[in-house]
Amino acid sequence: MSSFGEITSAKGDIAGAGQRPSAPSPAPEAERRAAIRLAAGLALLALAWVGAYLALRPLADILTYDLLRLSGDSHLGSAVNFFLYDTPKILLLLTAVVFLVGIVRTFFPAERARRALGGRREGIGNVAAAGLGVVTPFCSCSAVPLFIGFVEAGVPLGVTFSFLVAAPMVNEVAVVLLFGLFGWGTALLYVALGLGIAIVSGWVIGRLRMERHVEDFVYEMMVGQLDSEGRLSWVDRVGRARQAVREIVGRVWPFVVVGIAVGAGIHGYVPEDFLADVMGKGAWWSVPAAVALGVPMYSNAAGIIPVVEALMDKGAALGTALAFMMSVIALSLPEMIILRRVLKWRLIAVFIGVVAAGIVFVGYVFNLVL
């Protein structure tokens, strides 16, 4: 005879077999619908972006030559056409790149970079730091907390400097804009040589043993996590990317417009022979002169690359123009002033000298290869 429990269990099984499967819970269904809407919206935005990008050249020509009735052979017509075409082109590229990298960066918070570099030896650490510098958030305002956090985590001074050099120099804006203007060969060579500068510069500074030229309070200060990211949904990641677009593009677009305006003036009015003589391959002194000119200036990749494009259109050598760009990006005066809060002047001077020497080398390499 079966027990009462067995009978009850059998009845439950029979009853369960006749029941329909339960409907999915509301929360997963809502998340699935949100993900579908997000994917559809991003696809539409991508199509709109491609259409706008392809329409830039004919629209710029119509505005310049048909509506404004400017001649393509005139200085003014050439400058206006350059400005009307390059301004939306670079802003579109900048928006797309910042959005995509904003998503990527949600997987690489600065705290994760700090933990990854903590305890690393020089050499391997310099390579790892330079690589992380490319994909982690960095700007002049974050230089001090990043530097303090790395030192507190036990990262050697030279490894820290490899990160500080690579982060602003080999950034996504410069790489994509160089690709858009000059092709993959130039962009990849820029990345390789930029990372080389960061690795070698950090290694040299590490060999000089200049820890005593870091302000004393840095070694005494204990900082918490620079940032921490939990597990984010794709909706959250896209939201972070949109926020990055608003903040970064909103901050740099005036530099873009000013840079393109300067580039347009150079493109339309500066004689080709003049720049070919001053910044061409034949002038051996042009590369160090371009670096010396770029160090005290302040701009960013989005603002300076249009100037580089215009310089090259007028006969400047690519290596000389890129050396100027790299010195402006990697050795900007505001960044040096901010770093003075944690570094003494002698270490800042060594940092500028080592990085500038590396940039001069890159300029000569570009002029010889391309």
The total count of strands amounts to 0
Instruction: Classify the beta-strand content into a percent band.
Output: under 5%
Contiguous uncertain segments of 5+ residues: 1-19, 222-229
Cα shape: flat
- Rg (CA only): 27 Å
Structure notes:
This protein starts with a helix and ends with a helix. Helix 2 (26-67) runs antiparallel to helix 3 (75-105) and helix 9 (184-207) runs antiparallel to helix 17. It has helices spanning 4-17, 26-67, 75-105, 110-117, 124-135, 143-152, 157-169, 172-182, 184-207, 216-220, 234-269, 272-279, 286-294, 301-313, 318-330, 333-339, 345-369. The chain has 17 helices and no strands. It has one domain (110-369). By secondary structure, it is mostly helical.
For the structure shown, list the relevant keywords.
370 residues; mainly alpha; 17 helices; 76% helix; flat
Give the gist of this structure.
By secondary structure, the chain is an all-alpha fold. Helix content is 76%, strand content 0%. The longest helix has 42 residues, at 26-67.
Helices and strands in order, then pairings?
Elements: H1 4-17, H2 26-67, H3 75-105, H4 110-117, H5 124-135, H6 143-152, H7 157-169, H8 172-182, H9 184-207, H10 216-220, H11 234-269, H12 272-279, H13 286-294, H14 301-313, H15 318-330, H16 333-339, H17 345-369
Helix pairs in contact: 2-3, 3-8, 3-11, 5-7, 5-9, 7-9, 8-9, 8-14, 9-17, 11-14, 13-15, 13-17, 14-15, 15-17
